[in-house]
Write a structure and sequence with these properties.
- The protein is an alpha/beta fold and 332 residues long.
- The protein contains twelve helices and twelve strands.
- The protein starts with a strand and ends with a helix.
- The site of iron/sulfur cluster has 13 residues, from helix 12.
């Protein structure tokens, strides 16, 4: 059974008497212990999808239709008490800025102790020992000293480690990490990702890693979903997607990666920008930026099809498959 299944999810924003689509027909599944990535430029709807999973979309946004099932229980129809049971304990979130979660006027040790004691009846001393152990697990040196420090006394990377420690205290089944390393130095980024990977693997925790960087996710996620303008445009095993991207948008994201460029070569940024919710183009939303766009792309929406490598929504891929099949039939 899937741990999580998102089924035909549509999220709208009700804005100035208009209904704007922020997520369109998004479907995917997550198995226990699996690690997936959601990738796309900013404005693609990645964070909205992350928040939707824990039903935390705030006004003027709302879940218009579809289902989000955590082991067959639909999160979209849960009441506040049921949702609070799930948030943190079953599905935990990590954000780009740890200060969104940490309280600046309480020592990190006391914040961890508070989390422990809000869910179990143990005394301060035992909770302190657990907290110090967790800080050690996320590779924080001299945890006894760090325990008494305030968030501002720690580096950004160390604060993110504290967040990972606090998330782990509740033994979640799923961690949703939204650009968890974007604000950090490149070397620290790699360390935090490695830590996240190890923690998820060792504890059987499923991970949804949200990132604008295909290079970052390639080291962590087994499966990747590429989002553009509120839709999933390509989905498949991460390695396949990196080695043989099918959708022109995925190809563009890869070409823009510094590590993909040859020495001395300029980076190929995708021309144009992500459309705003209010200016979503007709047909395939990527058509104004796509080098292969045809008239059909400007008026019709491509369906999701399996290309043999990944699942992809693109007429060009569809046409190539048709041609290939015709050729195949001709041979028989
Ligand atoms: Fe480009 Fe057309 Fe494919 Fe959209 S459907 S990505 S516009 S070729
Ligand atoms: Mg975001």
């Amino acid at each position: 059974m899937n741990l999580l299944s998102v089924e035909h999810l549509n999220v709208n924003f009700h804005f100035k008497k208009r209904e704007l689509a922020a997520l369109i027909d998004v479907s995917f599944t997550l198995k226990r212990g699996e690690r997936i990535a959601i990738v796309g430029e900013s404005g693609a709807g990645k964070s909205i999808l992350g928040f939707s999973i824990v039903n935390l979309i705030s006004k003027p946004g709302y879940i218009h239709s579809g289902a989000i099932k955590l082991e067959n229980k639909d999160i979209t129809s849960m009441n506040l008490r049921q949702l609070q049971e799930i948030r943190g304990k079953r599905i935990a979130m990590i954000f780009q800025d740890p200060m969104m979660t940490l309280n600046p006027v309480i020592t990190i040790g006391d914040q961890l102790v508070e989390t422990i004691r809000s869910h179990t009846k143990i005394n301060y001393k035992d909770a302190r020992n657990i907290a110090i152990e967790k800080l050690r697990n996320v590779q924080i040196a001299s945890p006894e000293r760090r325990f008494d420090q305030y968030p501002h006394e720690l580096s950004g990377g160390m604060r993110q480690r504290v967040i990972i420690a606090s998330v782990l205290l509740l033994n979640p089944d799923i961690i949703i990490a939204d650009e968890p390393t974007t604000a950090l130095d490149v070397t620290i980024q790699a360390e935090i990702l490695q830590l996240l990977l190890a923690i998820c693997r060792d504890n059987g925790v499923a991970l949804v890693l949200i990132s604008h960087d295909l290079g970052v996710v390639s080291k962590v996620a087994e499966r990747t979903l590429v989002m553009y303008a509120g839709q999933i445009v390509e989905e498949g095993p991460t390695l396949e997607i990196i080695n043989d991207p099918q959708h022109p948008y995925t190809q563009g994201l890869l070409n823009a990666l510094p590590q993909m460029a040859l020495p001395g070569q300029r980076l190929n940024q995708i021309k144009g920008s992500m459309p705003s919710l209010a200016e979503r183009p007709n047909g395939c939303a990527f058509h104004p930026r796509c080098p292969y766009a045809t008239d059909k792309c400007r008026s019709e929406q491509p369906e999701f099809i399996y290309s043999g490598v990944s699942s992809v929504a693109c007429f060009m891929v569809e046409d190539m498959l048709d041609e290939f099949n015709q050729h195949d039939e001709g041979l028989v």
